[in-house]
Structure formats: C-alpha cells, structure tokens
Amino acid sequence: MSLPYISVVYHTIMLNFIENVLCFFESCFSRKAAFNWFVTITIGLMLRSDKLGVTSVIRDLALNLGCYDSMLHFFRASSWSLEEIRKRWFSAVRLYAPLYKEGNYHVLVGDGVKQPKEGRRMPGVKKLFQESENFAKPEYIHGHMFGGLDILAGRVRNWACIPLNIRLHDGLQAARDWKGASVCEASHVVQMVEDTYRAALTFGNSLLLLDRYFLTVPALEKLGVLNSSGDVRIEIITKAKKSCTAFEKPDLRRPGRGRPQKRELLFI
Questions:
Q1: Taking a C-beta distance cutoff of 8 angstroms, is the pair 152, 107 a contact?
Q2: How far apart are CA 159 and CA 65, in angstroms?
Q3: Do residues 146 and 112 lie in contact, with contact meaning Cβ atoms separated by under 8 Å?
Q4: Which of 142, 155, 146, 163 is nearest to 112 (CA)?
C-alpha cells in the first residue's frame, strides 16, 4: 500500500473516532441546536491556532461573523448542565481509553496550578502565595487557583495522562451572593479529594498521586469520611513533609503530681 493511501485510512479512522466520542455527549443536551454548537466549539478548540477565545474558533473554522453572539449564548444556555457533561466525559474516558491499572486500582493524578492574571478585578482572582522553591518566581502573585485531576492510560513504558477535570478551587467567595451561584467553602486540598471521589464513582477504586502540599489533616479526614461510605475506595500516595511527626499513645500514668501525658513522640 502506498503512503498516501495509509494516510487517508488513518485520518478516516481518527475522524470516525472523534465523531463517536462527540456523539456520546448528545444525551446531555435537551436541544439539538445546543449539541450542534457543542460539537462546533469542541472541534474549534482542537484546531485553533491561537488562544483568543471564541474569536479563535470562528477564525480557524471560517465561520460567519454573525455566529459570534450565538456562540456566546451557548455558554449561558439552560439546555445543558456542566456537571452532566463532566460525568459523561468520565464515562467516555472509561469506555474509549486504554486505562492503566495498578492491581485493581486506577491511577489518578492531582495537582494545583496558580495562573497569574493581569486583571485584579476579574472573578476568582486573588493574591496567592507561591510555595515553589524556584527563586525565579515571585513570592506573591495575583491570579487564579486551579485544581486539576487526570488519569493514567497506556502502559508502563508509554504512559499518557488524560485530563478529567479542572476548576477554580479558591477565590470565588465573592460569588456566593450571585444568583444561582454554587460556591464550595472547602479548602483547596479538600476539594481535590472531593473531585477525586466524584471521578472514582465512575472509574472504581483508585490511587491518587499528589505532592506533599496536599498531605494535611483536613484532607485525610475528608478521605476517611468518603471511604467510609462504602461505594468506592481511594488511597492517597504522596511524600511526607519535612516537618512530619508521629505520636503514639503514652504509657499508663505514673504515680506522682503533674498533668497526665497526652501523647508520646514516636519519630520526626
């Protein structure tokens, strides 16, 4: 077979795969027009040559300029729900992706990203402290605090990380008074555990890989509460912090005066 023929076959298979995945989301929309806009915008985001929002989609797909307003209305339409699309995306990844498993556990990867922003009055923008040890970065920035969750696919020598979910985890306190706004009051580390649990309801028992920043008491307490529900089980794999200490229960109280010992240092 000639090389052009192989290229045509490859592109045909790829286009059929993209079509099947996009059609998998059709049940999330109550109106056919909203689903058509969803497909158009998704293809536009895949093909765009720059990052100028809706304008990039219109330019690279050679759409009529009158589509600009209609495309903006799509993001505010009541004919679809972001949560339903997110759950459908989890199901699509489980159905179509060759997911990697460690024993009976899928492997999820979570991390936080601080994206600097120039506009101080943008929704969700706040002053953030950077814990990075890179001295080239400023100590404080103004920006968005995102929490991202991915899942491993492929094999040990050829891993791929498929994005599952990314959303703002901090800075939305001012939006509590907005009409129809649903703002979570939990901390960034707790929200990461909650996002993992929502994904695990689709994928099953999972291992969550995190850096040592997420090793906090609130996160572990939330993990214990979610695991006690019995639906799925999540195990966190991370490094211990440099300041990590462990305690054990003290021996029986010795006779004498003084306050009884509450705990005994095990190691530092």
A1: yes
A2: 41
A3: yes
A4: 146
Q: Coil, helix or strand for 119? A: coil
Rounded to whole angstroms, how far apart are CA atoms 149 and 153?
Answer: 13
Query: 169 near 192, Cβ under 8 Å?
Result: yes
User: Cα separation of 36 and 165, whole Å?
Assistant: 23
DSSP run (H or E) holding 190:
helix 188-203
The single residue listed with the structure tokens 């998998």 is 24
Let me know: does 88 contact 140? Beta carbons within 8 Å.
Answer: no
Task: Assess whether pLDDT exceeds 70 at residue 133.
Answer: no
Spatial separation of the C-alpha atoms in residues 233 and 172, rounded to whole Å: 30
Say if CB 50 and CB 58 are below 8 A apart: no
Q: Give φ, ψ of 7 to 5 degrees.
A: -65, -40
Q: Decide if 138 contacts 131 (C-beta within 8 A).
A: no
DSSP-assigned letter for residue 208 = E
Number of CB atoms found within 10 A of residue 108's CB: 23
145 DSSP β-pair partners? 114, 170
What one-character-per-residue DSSP string does 218-255 give? HHHHHHHHHHTTSS--EEEE-PPPTT--EEEPPPSPPS
The radius of gyration of the chain's CA atoms, rounded to the nearest angstrom, is 24
Tokens of 111: 């991390």
pLDDT at 266 over 60: no
Q: Is pLDDT at 142 greater than 90 in this prediction?
A: no
Mean pLDDT calculated for residue range 227-232: 86
Q: How confident is the model at residue 151 (pLDDT cuts 50, 70, 90)?
A: very high
**What is the phi/psi pair of residue 203, to 5°?**
-90, -20
CA 231/CA 154 separation, integer angstroms: 26
